[in-house]
Amino acid sequence: MMQSQHQPTILIADDEPANREILSELLEREGYLTLQAEDGLQALQTLRARQVDLALLDVMMPGRTGFAVCHEAKSDPLTRLIPIVLVTGLNRSEDRIKGIDGGADDFLSKPVDRAELLARVRSLLRLKMFTDELESAETVLCSLAISIEAKDPYTVGHCDRLSVYAEALGRRIGLNPDLLIALRRGGIVHDLGKVAVPEHILRKPGPLTPEERKIMEEHPAAGERICAPLKSFRAVLPIIRHHHEKLDGSGYPDGLKGSAIPLTARILSAVDIYDALTTDRPYRKALSREAALETMQAEVKKGWWDPDIVRELEVVLSLPESEELLRAGANR
């Protein structure tokens, strides 16, 4: 019997009741919890409705095959991290390739060998445990970022808006999916380092003193240090550290110039400035979209922001779906 605080739950999907019972008995004897589904549709519904740590899918099921269920599950953000093993009597290489293309994590051949089954299950559940721990760490960081934002009534919703617009702008520019994920995460956690800034400085309505400004300008590096242990945030770290840099080198914390500033950081800078200009602050009312973009264009001429990115931001903001994007981001 497994000694663990969490009993992993395994879904067994097969249209043959006898096959389900054999696998279920084997796994429950080892201390796992099992759920059963008699066809592909029921398997998908269970994956979406229950906490499942691993799925064993028979390939040849009526309605949706195991291939189809695997493809749909791996395409859904809610279920794509669940390890899936395809259980099959098909031994042709093209069938295996089809399963790999659908996102299958492993295969078992019928008749299932008990030792092989348990070895593969243990291996994939270890991987799922690491994934869950990683997700938990990311969730904690994002929750901390939101709690910091919530301390200032003038910045409520700021992180969600940046996350949505940074990703949309990155997609417009043609960045790859990994960098789009980095932008989405960066929008949420870019100011995480403000946890190290005293609240009286964060909420000060007037200009900061030189000493206070020095403390404030340390927050990007502090945020980078907080997130550095997470390998999944590797592409996010340059965004966190450099989103306050300016093209002419007058930004902080490193005074980078021009293309030395990572592209993703330049993207977040643009949406960060736009959002700051279009929201109320203690010292001024929010600007209209047009006025904010005019201000940004004037600052482009000063050499602060990337002119190409500001131009593409104008395009993104003019799209009919722009407001819909923002609402979706606020509700996710």
Quote the beta fraction: 5-15%
**What's the rounded overall pLDDT mean?**
87
The third-level CATH topology of the largest domain is: Hypothetical protein af1432
Separation of termini? 40 Å
Number of domains: 2
Quick overview of this protein structure:
The protein is of the alpha/beta class and about 325 residues long.
Entry keywords:
single chain, 332 residues, alpha/beta, Rossmann fold, Hypothetical protein af1432, 2 domains, 5-stranded parallel beta sheet, 5 strands, 55% helix, 7% strand, elongated, disordered C terminus
Give an overview of the whole structure.
There is one protein chain. The chain is α/β, with parallel strands linked by helices and 332 residues long. It has a five-stranded parallel beta sheet, with helices on both faces. It has helices at 17-29, 40-49, 66-75, 93-101, 114-150, 158-173, 177-189, 199-202, 210-216, 219-227, 237-242, 263-277, 289-301, 307-318, 322-331; strands spanning 9-13, 33-37, 54-58, 84-88, 106-109. Helix 2 runs parallel beside helix 3, helix 6 crosses helix 14 and helix 12 packs across helix 13 (289-301). The chain folds into two domains: 9-132, 3-Layer(aba) Sandwich (Rossmann fold), CATH 3.40.50; 151-331, Hypothetical protein af1432 (Orthogonal Bundle).
